[in-house]
Amino acid sequence: WSRKFQGLISEGTLGGEKVLLIKPQTFMNLSGQSVGEALRFYKLEPSALTVFYDEIDLAAGKLRVKVGGGSGGHNGIRSLDQHVGNAYRR
């Protein structure tokens, strides 16, 4: 891990695809700043982004994947939506 974009980043490959992992080191409600900086630096569209986060409405061990939608009251997702839009996988 190295420090960049107000967070920790790591680069590698997964299934032959280049992958950039970002762990924002801001407060959760400001995490969109970190992710937005990285997307602009690498000239990536929000559709290239996949966000993993906790979802209190899902039972333990359950997973849901969707594109777009609201924040559901999650301040980290709200911040991402403000900085990069909501056209990303989550």
Report on this structure.
The protein is of the alpha+beta class and 90 residues long. It has a single domain, classed as 3-Layer(aba) Sandwich (Rossmann fold), CATH 3.40.50. The protein is built from two helices and three strands. The protein has a three-stranded antiparallel sheet. The two termini are 23 Å apart.
* Poorly predicted spans: none
Main sheet makeup? 3 strands, antiparallel
Strand-and-helix sequence, N→C?
EEEHH
Distance between the termini: 23 Å
Query: How large is the count of helical segments?
Result: 2
Classified by CATH, the class is: Alpha Beta
Shape: globular
Say which CATH homologous superfamily is assigned. Answer: Peptidyl-tRNA hydrolase
- Mean pLDDT level: 93
Number of strands: 3
Structural class, judged by helices and strands? alpha+beta
Proportion in helices: 10-25%
CATH topology: Rossmann fold
Task: List the main descriptive attributes of the protein structure presented here.
alpha+beta
Topology of this structure?
Blueprint lengths: L1 E3 L2 E8 L2 E8 L6 H11 L33 H10 L6
Antiparallel strand pairs: 1-2, 2-3
Helix pairs in contact: 1-2
Short description:
The chain is an alpha+beta fold.
